[in-house]
Amino acid sequence: MIIDKAEIIVTSPDRNFVTLRITTDEGHVGIGDGTLNGRELAVVAYLKEHVAPLLLGKDAGRIEDIWQYLYRGAYWRRGPVTMAAIAAVDMALWDIKGKAAGMPVYQLLGGASRSGLMAYGHASGKTMPEIFDSVNEHLELGYKSMRIQSGVPGLNAIYGIASQSADTGDSAVRYDHEPARRGALPAQEDWDTRAYLRHIPTVFEAVRNEFGPELPLLHDGHHRMTPIQAAQLGKSLEPYDLFWLEDCTPAENQEALRLVRQHTTTPLAIGEIFNTVWDYQQIIREQLIDYVRSAVTHTGGISHLKKVLDYAAQYQIKSGMHGPTDVSPVGMAAAMHLGLSIHNFGIQEYMQHGAKTNAVFHQTYTWNDGYLHPGDEPGLGVTLDVDEAGKYPYEQAYLPFNRLADGTVHDW
Ligand code: KDG
Ligand code: MG
User: Fold this and answer.
1) Which of 15, 74, 193, 281 is most buried, by CB atoms within 10 Å?
2) Beta carbons within 8 Å of 295's beta carbon, 6+ residues apart
């Protein structure tokens, strides 16, 4: 199984996706996701200029050795661009290994530890009636747990609120708050943490009153609070029994979470912008979080994220893998194979892709009654329709950014 081709395909059906396609001399083809939202072409250049030439002639079966060669051999380690590029290679090689073995990847990882993966969706709205409509819509879509993001009085545009309803039935519209095409410059949003801290507990109180105590509810703070503000929010949300509070602080300062933990029993989820086990070293060892948020796509692939999750398992910390629409169907499938096989699976984020994306990436994973399953096709179970992909050239797109009322740039 010698690698004789490594191609990078960029396509923008509903948003930009970067896919690596590896072909072996025996004709096996594997694909991997290297999409880094808003910085896609940096990964494309890293793969094209610095990785693809190194893969040619290598034995595709030596996944761990190739991983170490790309990570240690570069000298410059870690970081989102490097780790997304390595992730794309790793996923493509697992895809090939599964196809060569005639087995789905989860079988190669030890087999299924459960029959399906509980997944949460994104309910949101500017007002309470809009939020209730969105929760009802997600219940109809089969979701059994939900993230709730709310508008804040006085703020015009903030993270996580869809600007249109999903009346068309297409998820690309439902989730257009996860930016795909914002033009040549990033959109500006506004922020006021005190207004947010006052408003959010009233939202969860209303949702609990309307939908009852059982529905697992999640919330994303999107890195905006200081440790003491995060502690305050976690404490004020305790009566509403959250499944998790996500990214309450910008967690590259890992020890900040000690303070949050001292004050609240609301479970914490962190890590969608982390790339390696080293980013988690302290917060796992000191049990400062409850869920690991990394995506396979941004954390060096299946091989590396499995190591992070095995480490987390020693501390009863579970997976909560990132699954926004900027993780391609290939990255989502990889997450599902990993989630099905590990013992410490917690929950999977699942924002459904739009119709155009689904026509480019043919999927065999399934969504039934609130549970995902990666399917039983050999490999990852996703194929890329190159002709369809070719209809949608790359379009420049940026994530938005935040300013406070006085003009200061704040974490987004
Ligand atoms: O590219 C950034 C998005 O993936 C991120 O903003 C989504 O926070 C997010 C989430 O929890 O899905
Ligand atoms: Mg998040």
Assistant:
1) 15
2) 272, 305, 321, 322, 323, 327, 331, 335
Output the CA 202–ligand 2 centroid distance in Å: 21
- Using alpha carbons, select from 14, 19, 8, 31 the residue that is nearest to residue 391: 14
Closest C-alpha among 339, 345, 294 to residue 318: 345
Ligand 1, residues at Cβ distance < 6 Å: 37, 178, 220, 222, 272, 322, 324, 326, 349, 399
Confirm if 266 and 237 have CB atoms less than 8 A apart. yes
Of the listed ligands, the closest to the CA of 295 is 1
d(CA 374, CA 116): 9
Q: Which CATH class is domain 3-103?
A: alpha beta
Inter-residue contact 216 to 243 (CB < 8 Å): yes
What are the boundaries of each domain within the chain? 3-103, 117-377
Amino acid at position 84, single letter: A
Residues with Cβ within 8 Å of 293's Cβ and at least 6 positions away in sequence, in order, are: 246, 247, 269, 270, 271, 272, 274, 320, 321, 322
How wide is the angle at C-alpha 250 spanned by C-alphas 248 and 253, nearest 5°? 115
Three-class secondary structure assignment of 179-207 = CCCCCCCCCEEECCHHHHHHHHHHHHHHH
Q: Cα dist. 216→139, 231, 232, 285 in Å?
A: 12, 21, 21, 26
Burial class (CB in 10 A: 0-12, 13-18, 19+), 85: buried
Query: Which tens digit of pLDDT belongs to each residue from 129-180?
Result: 999 999 999 999 999 999 999 999 999 888 988 655 445 567 766 676 566 5
Pick the CATH number of 117-377 from 3.40.190.10, 1.10.3720.10, 3.20.20.120, 3.90.1300.10: 3.20.20.120
Q: What is the rounded distance in angstroms from the CA atom of residue 142 to the CA atom of residue 129?
A: 20
Residue 62: per-residue pLDDT? 98
51-97 residue pLDDT tens: 999 999 999 999 999 999 999 999 999 999 999 999 999 999 999 99
- Which one of 174, 181, 273, 322 would you pick to mutate in the ligand 1 pocket, going by the greatest count of ligand atoms within 8 A of its CB? 322
